Description:
Layout: E1 4-9, H1 16-31, E2 35-39, H2 45-55, H3 64-88, E3 92-96, H4 99-109, H5 114-125, E4 132-137, H6 140-150, H7 164-180, E5 185-189, H8 194-208
Parallel strand pairs: 1-3, 1-4, 2-3, 4-5
Helix pairs in contact: 1-8, 2-3, 3-4, 3-5, 4-5, 4-7
Organism: Lentilactobacillus parabuchneri
Family: Belongs to the thymidylate kinase family.
Keywords: ATP-binding, Kinase, Nucleotide biosynthesis, Nucleotide-binding, Transferase
Amino acid sequence: MDGKFITFEGPDGAGKTSVMNQVIAVFDQELGDRLLVTREPGGNKISEEIRSVILDRNNTEMDYRTEALLYAAARRQHLVETILPALKDHKLVLCDRYVDSSVAYQGAGRQIGMSQVARMNEFATEKLLPFKTIYFDIPVEVGLERIAKHRDSRKIDRLDVETTAFHKRVHQGYMKIRDQNADRFISIDATQPIDAVVNDTITIIHQIAGEYFKED
């Protein structure tokens, strides 16, 4: 594959999606159709339909392993239908969440085992990992305070309303993943003002995917 695959990761309230939207506004003009921006779960019709089931706040009976399997299923469809074709077409792919989210949220947060969830996703992705992962680091309490203060109640999903203990386990899971993948992870201090986080993100992507921004 000729393209470059970069993921955005972080705990709830880190602001990565807001940052990503501002980064896209800049890169759309610079890259045009050489850029693909997508998200997980989602990114295409089937995966978005699975997303709606996973995140529906009314699905309180959902078993944790069912949840993990649904994420993996959505990821598989997303990969084969959306990500791989874009990489084969030499595009820069920016994805809001990927495998690391499942390992942190379901593996650590739901306590069903980080290694078990990782193996499940190795099957789903055929072990495809991103070239780099930009991690938006923020203390759990700060992230949850942001959600409570700023997020539209209609956009709060099943994971947003989990306990503080759950979110602390997720954060600890992310720290473990980051330590084990130090060559892939690049951390940004997400407690900064959003303009600073956006500027840091743009600078990092220019550094790790500079070939896309060279003048023809």
